[in-house]
Fold this protein.
Amino acid sequence: MELKIGVIGVGAIGQDHIKRITNTLSNGKIVAVTDVNDQQAKAIVEAFDLDARIYENGHQLIQADEVEAIMVTSWGPTHEEFVLAAIEAKKPVFCEKPLATTKEGCMRIVEAEMKAEKALVQVGYMRRYDTGYRALKQVIDEGQIGQPLIIHAAHRNPTVPNRYTADMSIVDTFIHEIDIHRWLLNDDYVSVQVIAPKKTREAADHLQDPLIVIMKTKQGTVINGEIFVHCQYGYDIQCQVVGEKGIAHLPDPASVILRSEAKCSTNILTDWQYRFKEAYDAELQDWIHSSLKDEVNGPSAWDGYVAAVTADACLKAKATGKTTMIHLKERPFFNQPFIAEKR
Ligand code: NAP
């Protein structure tokens, strides 16, 4: 069995995903592509030697008979319209984050799935497929550290480009932390506070960097999250879960420990693509296999909605300096309640 995939947007991550589907993963085939820049679409079809048709726009691609599933990897502001069109066409859709740029847009997608009476959307929160985070979740779920009380997390980038805006520290960077911690804890957030420490001299005038985001969950766990996008030294994702009877750390990516010239050293990655390469592979492989079984296994449209609501609250907390409450709508029926809600 082979899932015939149409790709909307062949920029950086679109190309990356086309490459992994074509060269690394099984049971998926790129049969159609589109991009606002049609020269770019042609170049990608040639570069990867794809047997794929180039469509003028995303809507034509979604409607095409040969396309069974859609991958949306265009700019964030275009995601909602393409995801809604894919649901309307009853085709499974993998959408890179954000699901939509507003919580209202995400809710329109959740409602469209409800109307179609079918979950069709997977959102690109790939950390859930990282082996380290999976092992960490298993330790928590098995109760090995008791109830989780605190998470200390850090998201550090060596530097960011000039086009990186003040809001991007939340909506582009911290959004992955928002998704992964509620997944790790089987819990949702109720409030958030944002604190601005002393600013690094490396950051542009318009950016507050680093930031500390403190989120509290329904069960009372506090997540103390650092965002530091000019840390200089590497791309470093840290997560330490403090429980009632133990502490669990996210493992660092495997790297040789070198003892030489009176030093003991190990490399730190500098690039997010390498840090989560295997997670991206696993998330798309899962999407392909579950789509072929007419299922959605990964992060859902509801997860995309929760991330958007939480990110909005983070932005408000950042702007006001005040603790901001997080209010979610009621969860639709085909998304099962979290384990923590039952505990
Ligand atoms: P990018 O390099 O700018 O690529 C976006 C591509 O979509 C560009 O080729 C752009 O064309 C094209 N495009 C824009 N509007 C379109 C439309 N209406 N129809 C068809 N194509 C359209 O950006 P990127 O870094 O790949 O990011 C794409 C999305 O993936 C973003 O939402 C980003 O947040 C997300 N992303 C997620 C992760 C993750 O870790 N999960 C990592 C990276 C990116 P032009 O450039 O020619 O205008």
User: Anything to note?
Assistant: The chain has two domains: 3-123, 128-271+305-325. The two ends are 40 Å apart (CA to CA).
